[in-house]
Specification:
It catalyses: L-alanine = D-alanine. This protein is of the alpha/beta class and 822 residues long. α25 crosses α26. It is globular and about 90 Å long. The structure holds pyridoxal-5'-phosphate.
Length: 822
C-alpha cells in the first residue's frame, strides 16, 4: 500500500555519491533510531545535531534489519555491514531536504503551506477535517514543522494524493528558504505573526519577512486583514501575487459581513464571489474563529462551494493538542491520545506507550476506535494496523466501531470488538485491566474521554501537570551549551524534584542522558522495577541497603573511608570485583565527601582495591548561583581539578570528572570536565540573567464552591480573614496537606483564576483554602493555578522566603501527576 521507490532512484534525487550493494524498495524514511517499524523498507538518515549523532546507531539499526543509510562523508563506513547501501552526503540534513524537494516535483496536486506564529497545527487539522472524505489528503503528522519534520511530512506525498497540507515553523533566519523548497506550496497561508520564537529575530517585521519566503512560488497567498502587519508585508514582498484576503474590509475577497456570538456557537455571514451565506461555527472564542476562517478561505479557494461549507463547518471539532500519561486503576498506566487518528499518529503514540512501559513482560493494551484515513480501503487499513500492532509488541486490542468490528478476522492478536463506546463501557469493568500499559486512542466522535475517565485512578482534582516537551527542551538547552563529548547526569532524586518517578526517568532514558542520580537506594530500586536501565548513582547510600543496591545494579557515592570499607565488605561477601563506584570529594561544602587532607590516604587505599572500579570522581559547588561567591567557586573548581589529577595518576586509569550543577553549567560552563549534573534546570528553574527556561510543572486545582459573604464576616479557622467589603469567596480543594504552604494564607499567596490574581483569604486548611474572587467573574468549576506559566514558582518561593526546590519537593504524593506531550 505504501508507495515504494528503489534505493537507486532515491539516491538520484539526493544528487550525492552512493554505494549500492543490493538495490532495495524503500517506503519509509526514519531519522529517529528508536522507532523503526519496517526496517527492511526504511532509509535511515544519520543526522548530527547538538544532542545526538545519528551515525552512532547505524550498526544497531543494521542488526534490526535496516540496510539503507544516508551518512556524512566523514563517516567511516563499516565494511562488516555487508550488503548495506549508502548515500554519502556533504551534509545529511541538507541532502535529505534536497532529496524530498526533488521528489516533490513529481506531484502536481494543490499543496497548502501553512506558516505563522500560532495556530498552524489547528488550521492544518481543520483544513483536513473540512476536506474530510471528499479528497485523498496527505498532511504533516502532529506538528511536524521543523527542518527535519517538514521533509518527513512531504515524503508522504504519493501518486494517489489529491491535496496536501503541510506546516512550516522556523526559529531563526535562513531556515525558511530551505523548507520552502521542500514544501513548494501552491497555496500559501499565513495564520498570524505574534511574539512566539522571537528571540532570534530583530523585529516582528523581520520574522514576518522570513516566514513569507515560504510563498515565493505560490500561486496565491491566503491571509487575514484583521491581523496587523501581514498585508503590508505581503504587498511589499510580493506586489504582483494573487491574494485571498479575509476580514471585515469591504474590498476583501472573502468578506465577513456580520458575526453574532451566541452561548455555544457563532453565526457568521460571509460574502464570496458576490454570493452571501451564513455559517454556524460550533464555538464562541476568537482564536477558534480566526483559525476556522483561515481553513474556510482555503477550501473556498480550492473550489468547495458555500453549500458544502455550511454542513462541513458544523462538524469541526477541537484538536486535542496533547497526549497525556496518567495513573490508571489496578496499577495500570494510561496514555490518552485523542490528537488525531491516523496510522502515523497511532505509530507515534504506540512508541510513547512503549517508552513508558519498559518492564520486559508488561502487557500492552490498545483501545482503538475506527480511524479515519482518507484514501485507504478499510480492509487494507485494518491489515496495516494489525501489522503495526504486531511490530510494536502490543498484546491486546480492544476495537470500537463498525470498521474494526467488521474486519475482526484480520487481527491475529488477542482482540475484542464493540460497535460503540457505550457498548464497550457496558462490557468492561476495572478488573478487565491489571498491571498493564493502556493506550486509549479514539477519533473525536467516539468520545473516548469517557473511557479514559473510567480507567483513571481517582484522586482528588488537585493536580500537578508536567509538560514533557518543556522538560526535553530544557535538557536540550543545557546540552547545547556543552561540548559534544560531555556526559549528562540527570538528577531525579526526591521523586524527580516532585515531578514523578519512572515517568520522568523513562523520558530521560529515551533522550539518552548518560546517568541518573537519586538520593536513596529505594528511589533507584523503584526505577529499576519499572524497567529503567540507565546507570544510576545513589548519592546517600546506607549500609543496610548495600545488598539491595548491588542486586539492582545501583552505583553508590562513596564519601568516606567508613562507607568505603562497609561497601567493600559487602562486595567481598558476594565475591564481586570491579563494581562501579563514584568518589565524592569535599571542596568546601563541609557535608559529605573526602576532605582534601584525606586524599593521600585515599590514593593508597584505592590503588590496591580490586573490588571496586572508580567510575567517576566528583564534588559539589556551594554557591554557583551567586556572584558574591564566584571566587570561592573558582577555588572549589581548582581544588577539584588538582585532586582529581592526583587520583588519576595514582589509580593508573581514568574516570569521569564532574562538578557542575544547574547554575554551575550556566555560569561556569568552561569547567564542565567530563560530565555535568543537571537538576532543577531541567524542571524549568535557571539563573537570573540567563535564558529563561521553559516552565515544566503547573500546580492546579479548581473552584469547588463560591459563596457571597458580607463585609466584616470572617473566613475559616481562627476568624482570621475579616472581609472589608461584601465578597465572593471561593473554596479551592487544595490545602497544606497537598503541599500548599500554610504561610501563604492571609493574603501572602495568590492564585490565578481566569488570568487574574485572587488572594488567599484566611488561614489555609489541611485539605482546602479560600480565595477572594470578588469581581473576577469566576464560576464554580473554573480552573485555578497555584503555580505555572502564569504564576512562576519563583514568585511563590520569594513570598515564602524559600527556594523553588522546596516548593517542588513539598507537593504531596496524593496530588495526582499528569504528564503530557504537546
Ligand atoms: C541535587 C544535586 C545536584 C543538582 O543540583 P541543581 O542545582 O538542582 O542542578 C547536583 N549534584 C548533587 C550532588 C546534588 O545532590
Amino acid at each position: 500500500m505504501m508507495q515504494s521507490y528503489l534505493f537507486s532512484r532515491i539516491s538520484e534525487w539526493a544528487m550525492a555519491k552512493t554505494i549500492i550493494n543490493n538495490d532495495l524498495e524503500i517506503s519509509y524514511i526514519i531519522t529517529d533510531s528508536r522507532s523503526v517499524s519496517y526496517p527492511e523498507k526504511s532509509l535511515f538518515i544519520a543526522i548530527t545535531g547538538g544532542n545526538h549523532n545519528g551515525h552512532d546507531y547505524i550498526s544497531s539499526l543494521y542488526q534490526q534489519g535496516v540496510r539503507c543509510f544516508m551518512v556524512d562523508e566523514h563517516y567511516a563506513i563499516d565494511e562488516k555491514l555487508a550488503d548495506a547501501n549508502y548515500i554519502i552526503a556533504d551534509n545529511t540534513l541538507e541532502c535529505f531536504q534536497r532529496l524530498v524537494a526533488e521528489k516533490r516535483h513529481l506531484y502536481h496536486c494543490p499543496v497548502i503551506g501553512v506558516t505563522g506564529s500560532n495556530g498552524k497545527t489547528i488550521v492544518k487539522e481543520w483544513i483536513s477535517q473540512l476536506i474530510g472524505n471528499s479528497k485523498v489528503l496527505v498532511r504533516s503528522p502532529k506538528s511536524y514543522n521543523s527542518q527535519i519534520g517538514v521533509p518527513l511530512s512531504v515524503w508522504q506525498l504519493n501518486k494517489n494524493t489529491e491535496v496536501a497540507v503541510f506546516e512550516a515553523g522556523i526559529s531563526q533566519m535562513g531556515e525558511m528558504e530551505r523548507i520552502a523548497s521542500v514544501i513548494e506550496p501552491t497555496i500559501g497561508l499565513i495564520t498570524n505573526i505574534g511574539a512566539a520564537h522571537q528571540e532570534n529575530f530583530a523585529s516582528r517585521k523581520e520574522k514576518l519577512n522570513e516566514k513569507l519566503k515560504l510563498f515565493a512560488n505560490s500561486e496565491i497567498i491566503v491571509f487575514s486583514t484583521e491581523v496587523p502587519f501581514v498585508e503590508e508585508g505581503i504587498s511589499k514582498m510580493y506586489p504582483h501575487k494573487n491574494v485571498l484576503r479575509w476580514g471585515t474590509n469591504l474590498n476583501n475577497e472573502l468578506q465577513i459581513v456580520k458575526k453574532v456570538v451566541a452561548s455555544s456557537s457563532s453565526q457568521v455571514e460571509l460574502k464570496w464571489n458576490n454570493k452571501t451565506c451564513s455559517l454556524e461555527l460550533p464555538f464562541i472564542d476568537e482564536v477558534s474563529f480566526e483559525n476556522a476562517m483561515h481553513a474556510i478561505a482555503v477550501l473556498l479557494y480550492l473550489g468547495y462551494d458555500l453549500k458544502y461549507m455550511e454542513s462541513a463547518v458544523k462538524k469541526l471539532v477541537p484538536v486535542a493538542m496533547r497526549m497525556e500519561l496518567k495513573e490508571g486503576v489496578n496499577n495500570c498506566i494510561l496514555v490518552n491520545d485523542s490528537y488525531n487518528s491516523d496510522i502515523s499518529s497511532l505509530g507515534l503514540s504506540l512508541d510513547f506507550l512503549i517508552q513508558q512501559s519498559r518492564k520486559s513482560n508488561t502487557v500492552r493494551t490498545l483501545i482503538l476506535s475506527d480511524i479515519y484515513q482518507s484514501g485507504i480501503e478499510s480492509e487494507v487499513l485494518c491489515r496495516q494496523i494489525n501489522d503495526l500492532l504486531k511490530k510494536k509488541g502490543i498484546s491486546r486490542l480492544i476495537g470500537v466501531g463498525e470498521v474494526l468490528k467488521n474486519n475482526a478476522q484480520l487481527f491475529d492478536l488477542e482482540a475484542s470488538f464493540y460497535n460503540t463506546t457505550a457498548e464497550l463501557l457496558d462490557s468492561i469493568s476495572h478488573n478487565t485491566f491489571k498491571n498493564e500499559a493502556i493506550l486509549i486512542k479514539g477519533s473525536r466522535n467516539f468520545e473516548f474521554e469517557q473511557v479514559s475517565d473510567f480507567l483513571e485512578k481517582k484522586h482528588h482534582q488537585t493536580r500537578l501537570e508536567i509538560n514533557l516537551n518543556a522538560l526535553v527542551d530544557n535538557l536540550n538547552y543545557f546540552r547545547s551549551k556543552l561540548k559534544d563529548t560531555t556526559k549528562i547526569l540527570a538528577m531525579v532524586k526526591a521523586f524527580s524534584y516532585g515531578s514523578g518517578s519512572f515517568e520522568i526517568a523513562n523520558v530521560l532514558q529515551h533522550q539518552k542522558v548518560d546517568y541518573l542520580g537519586v538520593a536513596f537506594a529505594d528511589e533507584g530500586i523503584e526505577l529499576r522495577k519499572s524497567g529503567v536501565s540507565l546507570p544510576i548513582i545513589v548519592m546517600n547510600p546506607e549500609v543496610k541497603s548495600f545488598p539491595a543496591m548491588i542486586e539492582h545494579q545501583l552505583e553508590p557515592e562513596i564519601y568516606s573511608f567508613k562507607v568505603l570499607n562497609q561497601f567493600i565488605d559487602v562486595l567481598r561477601n558476594e565475591g564481586l570485583t570491579q563494581y562501579p563506584v563514584h568518589i565524592k570529594v569535599d571542596t568546601g561544602m563541609n557535608r559529605l565527601g573526602f576532605m582534601t587532607s584525606e586524599i593521600d590516604q585515599l590514593k593508597e587505599v584505592l590503588r590496591d582495591l580490586n573490588e571496586i572500579r572508580v567510575r567517576s570522581v566528583f564534588s559539589h559547588l556551594v554557591g554557583s548561583d551567586e556572584v558574591q561567591f564566584d571566587d570561592f567557586t573558582k577555588t572549589q573548581i581548582n581544588t577539584f581539578d588538582r585532586v582529581t589529577q592526583e587520583l588519576k595518576e595514582a589509580l593508573g586509569y581514568s574516570f569521569i570528572r564532574h562538578i557542575l550543577n544547574t547554575a554551575g553549567i550556566l555560569r561556569f560552563t568552561e569547567s564542565q570536565f567530563d560530565m555535568v549534573r543537571v537538576g532543577i534546570g531541567m524542571y524549568g528553574i535557571g539563573v537570573e540573567g540567563h535564558k529563561k527556561l521553559k516552565n515544566v510543572t503547573s500546580f492546579k486545582s479548581y473552584i469547588s464552591q463560591i459563596r457571597e459573604v458580607k463585609a466584616h464576616e470572617t473566613i475559616g479557622y481562627g476568624r482570621r480573614g475579616e472581609l472589608a467589603y461584601d465578597s465572593d469567596i471561593a473554596v479551592v480543594p487544595v490545602g497544606y496537606a497537598d503541599g500548599l504552604n500554610r504561610k501563604l494564607g492571609n493574603g501572602v499567596g495568590k492564585m490565578m483564576v481566569n488570568n487574574q490574581l485572587a488572594p488567599i483569604i484566611g488561614n489555609i486548611c489541611m485539605d482546602m483554602c479560600m480565595i477572594d474572587v470578588t469581581g473576577l467573574n469566576a464560576k464554580e468549576g473554573d480552573e485555578v493555578q497555584i503555580f505555572g506559566p502564569a504564576q512562576p514558582v519563583s514568585d511563590l518561593a520569594k513570598a515564602l522566603g524559600t527556594i523553588p526546590y522546596e516548593i517542588f519537593t513539598s507537593i504531596s504524593r496524593r496530588v495526582k501527576r499528569i504528564y503530557y506531550y504537546e
